[in-house]
Each structure stands twice: as structure tokens, then as C-alpha cells.
Amino acid sequence: MNTTRDRVIYMMTTLKIKEQTEFGKLCGASKSVVYQWITGRIKSIDARFAFKLEDNTPFSARWIMLGEGKIKNGILSVEIKRVVPEALKPRQIRITAE
Hints:
The chain is mainly alpha-helical. It is built from 5 helices and 2 strands. A two-stranded antiparallel sheet has the order 1-2. The longest helix has 11 residues, at 4-14.
């Protein structure tokens, strides 16, 4: 989840929130601001919104703003790591004449 858009959609899905207004109430943002996060028009979440979200949800402000570190999930914290499946890693293929 590299983009603000991805993180907002992930948070809304995880929290089972369908309305942008409801998500905005959790962080003090207007429906318009939430819409702009989702569409990618606003590329980052201001600290004041992120810390309010941290207070009202299981997500950490650092992850909300930067997409780095731990996603706080109640008592459980989960570290996000990007893992490339073996099948998608570059390979070297040799072609030899017989």
C-alpha cells in the first residue's frame, strides 16, 4: 500500500465503512477531503488527520501518513514487508546451440 489512496481504501474496508462522510468523522476531515484522498488528488494525509485516525482506529499515524512501519491492530501490530514471489523474480535463461 504505497499510496494514500490505497491506505484510505484499506482502512475503510477494514473498518467496514462505506460512506466517505463516516470516515471523515473519524479524523475530522470533510467528505470532500476524503474523496480527494480516494481519487488521488490529495497525495498525503496531514498529521492532524492521521493522529485523529490513530486515536479513533487501530491504525498508526506513521503508517497512515507514510505507509511505513507497523499497522496497529489493537494489541497486535503487523509489520508490512514487500515480498516478491519466486515466480515473479527475474531469471536468467541461457540458450545454447546443439
